[in-house]
Amino acid sequence: MKSKKVSNISRRSVLKAGAAVLATPYLISRPARADEGTVKIMGVSTVALQDWSAFEADTGLKMDFVGVNSDPGLYVQEVVANEAGDSYDIFIFDGGIEDRLGASGHFQKIDPAAMKLWGAVADSVKSSALLQGADGTQYGVPIVFNADSFGYHVDAISEAEPFSWGMVFENEKMLGKVALEDTWLTTLPNAALYLISKGKAITDPSNMTPEEAKMTADFLIERKKAGQFRALWHSYEESVDLLGNREVLIAECWEPVIKQLQRDGKNVRYASMKEGYSKWMIGAYLPSQAKDERLARAYKALDWFLDGHYGAQMAIQQGYATANPQAALAFAKAKGLSEADLGAIKLNIEKVEQKMTLPHYWQNSAPQHVEAIEAEWQRFKQA
């Protein structure tokens, strides 16, 4: 089995679907096609397991996984300019890229009948706009996803969940004790969710008009001047330190931050929300070149990603949901995993059944008025 990494991991960068094509033509080595018992995957490093032995035992296939950064420009370069579909059987990229690479013919339509476990995937998950083309064509299979919110110190919060986003953005008890993620991609829409709950006219937090973005930035500037925010964090490590050292008591952050701090003995939790979440997804896509035996191997691999062993690993290690969490729970019980591990998997079942069904919002890395939104974010930062 192989698991290679060609660049540093970043679950998501500040994404633009129209990112410039990279100048260097062949950044990723092309695997040989000689071994017909191997499935070859190019994917975001976040989804990779450290040990693929269970995959190989269950499927009878070898795994050759090449990890890449979360970067749509890289995806386009490899798939379009470098014709990576000639060599790779599956791409696992940030959801949304199918709007560009599916409609252009570089990804093929998914055949649900080719997967035994497709029917076990919740409709609210597989129908995500981050897996389907603009015309509703199913190009992607969900691999991992999450509903991001905020982490907090349990002893500092007396209110009961589910919380409002007002806990982060308009909370007099937490003045100077809140950290925000330093990106418009999540922080502006999360603030917009709160404004919607207050009756403000915002149609889609992930695709705001210039006027809506200005209203949201004006609100954030007002709260910034009131002293609400202690810091903007830029990296996973920085968010861990801010919350772990109690420099802040609330941090808009990724769930693995809370998993790590809990392992370190910190009494922190990841919040459930009333208004909605920052929902993201990484999907698997099939290159148009994959046919016959290559295609059969690809679907066999995708079925394994939809099954229990992979889902259990992601839930326990990262707190990420997978497409078939009930299978993960059944696997954990059959293998006699700990109550803590079972609890992590059950939380992911809750996500699929409750959090993912809320209407707002799937992350949109390329909203219609992205330049205006970016400008409003910079105005907030400079205020």
Topology:
Blueprint: E1 2-5, E2 38-44, H1 53-59, E3 62-68, H2 72-81, E4 90-94, H3 98-101, H4 123-126, E5 140-153, H5 166-169, E6 178-181, H6 184-197, H7 210-225, E7 229-233, H8 236-244, E8 250-253, H9 255-263, E9 268-270, E10 278-285, H10 292-305, H11 308-318, H12 325-334, H13 339-353, H14 370-382
Parallel strand pairs: 1-3, 2-3, 2-4, 6-7, 6-8
Antiparallel strand pairs: 4-10, 5-8, 5-9, 5-10
Please write the CATH class name of the largest domain. Answer: Alpha Beta
The dominant shape is globular
Rg measurement, Å = 21 Å
The number of E-state strands comes to: 10
What's the CATH H-level superfamily name of the largest domain? Periplasmic binding protein-like II
Q: Which characteristics define this entry?
A:
383 residues, D-Maltodextrin-Binding Protein, domain 2, 14 helices, disordered N terminus, alpha/beta, single chain
3D structure, described in words:
With 383 residues, this protein is of the alpha/beta class. It folds into two domains: 223 residues, D-Maltodextrin-Binding Protein, domain 2 (3-Layer(aba) Sandwich); 153 residues, D-Maltodextrin-Binding Protein, domain 2, CATH 3.40.190. 37% of the residues lie in helices and 16% in strands. It has 14 helices and ten strands. Strands 1, 2, 3, 4, 5, 6, 7, 8, 9 and 10 form a ten-stranded mixed β-sheet that branches. This is Extracellular solute-binding protein.
